[in-house]
Design a protein that fits this description.
about 250 residues, alpha+beta, 434 Repressor (Amino-terminal Domain), Lipocalin, 2 domains, eight-stranded antiparallel beta barrel, 6 helices, 9 strands, about 25% helix, about 30% strand, HTH cro/C1-type domain-containing protein, Cro/C1-type_HTH, DNA binding, Lambda_DNA-bd_dom_sf
């Protein structure tokens, strides 16, 4: 059976949306093709209009980008919605553009004591849902990579990365970027213990503009070159007052 091909009009609209997503997220076409598990030739030809998008290719691109590329019949064009919903802070796209980007993300390793877990977090505007969204990549435990919405309420001055998966929540609370574009805060999540046991866990969290990730991603141990600078970034969460950890009752 041949693959379902989308119409010329649909293909043009998808190509435009993909090009905008590539520009916002500052990723190459090669990277997107690899993450979507399609050939770079297929992507290039579809973006250039030399062949229509197929339904299968479009679905893979949607999964890789974390956003819908197909407009539902009768729904207004996504770009008409310029403000996030009230529960995320009612921010406009223009007011949060400075948060968009790719960040080296650091936290203590939950599985190996004394090590640091490093991965990538991408934050970008999703036109269809009219909000900032985030997605994680370059994680050693890829099946546990998170994605979700970004809340930026004016009252607290904080930034919240919120995952809500069928009622199960995971939350990162971050201070707004400093002059270097770095964000520091706390991650609250569930830690997988023995068997199927899950335990609430909290840890310091640092998001740094990706160019700071000179030592790469993965589980960084004390013997590796990147450990000392990565540990210094994480130490700032407490030392510079970006978060307070209460460990007992006086």
């Amino acid at each position: 059976m041949s693959e379902i091909e989308l119409s010329e009009a649909q293909s043009r609209a998808i190509a435009q949306t993909v090009r905008e997503a590539l520009a916002r997220r500052r990723i190459s076409r090669q990277t997107l093709a690899e993450e979507a598990r399609i050939s770079i030739s297929t992507l290039e030809k579809a973006l250039a209009g030399r062949r229509p998008f197929t339904l299968a290719t479009t679905i893979r691109l949607e999964e890789a980008l974390g956003q819908s590329l197909r407009q539902e019949p009768g729904r207004p064009a996504p770009e008409t919605a310029r403000h996030a919903p009230d529960e995320l802070g009612s921010y406009s796209r223009e007011s949060v553009a400075w948060i968009e980007g790719r960040y080296l993300t650091l936290r203590p390793s939950f599985g190996t004591a004394g090590s640091i877990f490093a991965y990538r977090t991408e934050i970008a505007w999703d036109a269809e849902s009219a909000r900032l969204v985030f997605r994680e990549a370059e994680r050693l435990d890829a099946p546990f990579a998170q994605s979700g919405s970004v809340a930026v309420p004016s009252q607290s001055g904080m930034i919240y990365l919120v995952t809500n998966w069928h009622g199960q929540h995971r939350l990162a609370v971050l201070c707004r970027p400093n002059i270097q574009g770095e964000m520091y805060g706390v991650l609250t999540t569930l830690h997988a213990g023995r068997g199927t046991q899950l335990t609430p866990a909290a840890a310091p969290l640092a998001l740094l503009p990706e160019q700071a990730g000179a030592f790469g991603y993965g589980r960084i141990g004390p013997e590796e070159p990147g450990f000392a600078p990565y540990r210094a970034y994480l130490a700032r969460v407490h030392e510079d007052g970006y978060a307070t950890f209460f460990t007992g009752v006086a």
